[in-house]
Amino acid sequence: MKRVKPRRKNLRISNPIGFSLFIAGCLLALGVIAVIITLAVGYGEDAVRYVQEQIQGTVEVINEQPTFSIEPSKEPEVSGTPAETPKVGTPAPSDTPTPEPIGNLEDTPEPTPDVNAPLYSVTVGINPMRDAGNKSKEMIEECAFNLEFSQRLAKYLEDQGATVIITRDSNEVSMSAKKRGMIIAAAQCDIALEIVCNHTGSGGGCYVRYGSNKSYAAELAAAYQEATGIPFQSNHKSGIYQKTEDTIKYSKCPCVRLVLCNWSSSSQREIVEDEVVQQKIFKAIASVLSAQVKK
Fold first, then answer.
1. Tell me, what CATH number does 266's domain have?
2. pLDDT per position as a tens digit, 77-102
3. How many Å apart are CA 255 and CA 220, to the nearest integer?
4. Is 77 domain-assigned?
5. How many CA atoms does the CB half-sphere of 127 hold within 13 Å?
6. Structure confidence at residue 21 (pLDDT)
7. Which of 8, 70, 154, 276 is the right S-S partner for 164, CB 3.0 to 4.6 Å?
8. pTM for this entry
9. Residues spanned by the domain of 152
């Protein structure tokens, strides 16, 4: 049997032109694919870059927006008294502004003193006697009464045109008779008087003590007794008694001591504490002072 020997087949190109065209087509196809891939990759990067830029711009815009905080609403505060609802028929308020007061009340000048007043331009000194040095109950009560009486008298005399100087304005002070006289002298008083009550047994009453001004003492004693009806003290039946003491001595002006009553007598105390009687006393004293300063 004849042995068949296998033979290798070799590629043979029978049409070189067709093969060349085939190879060119393949290369062209590969080129087109390469271009498409390149374009796709390029546009993809641009697209990613574009998206990133838009995202970044959006973030910056958001960061630049103002921040708003929402607080819970509060009820409006109402100050002052709430306005009342006007009643039916009440006229509407006028739009006309209220006129402002003219000038300052503090600048209001003091009233012009009456030059025809009985004691115009007269300076009167009053010394309410007793002070904190008196310890007994009766003396303490009298001390307070003397001051109260003197202050009321001062007000009356001021209404008559006088300027009044009182040596004390408290019941807690303690000062000598000499110092009281010096206070009156320092004020350059034209005339002065002391106010006091006695503490005696039976026979006590009113009288006026003086230093050298006898006529002043006599006129005051007579006017005072007429106003009150209180009898003169039994040992001073004329109603006056001469004795110089420091207040009278250092006052440097006509000065006397008016003893209102016997403080130990309840009936006499009731008389001098009566406000109606006090007005009569004040009038009598003012009349005597006015007559004395004109001499």
1. 3.40.630.40
2. 555 555 555 555 555 555 555 655 54
3. 11
4. no
5. 30
6. 73
7. 154
8. 0.63
9. 123-293
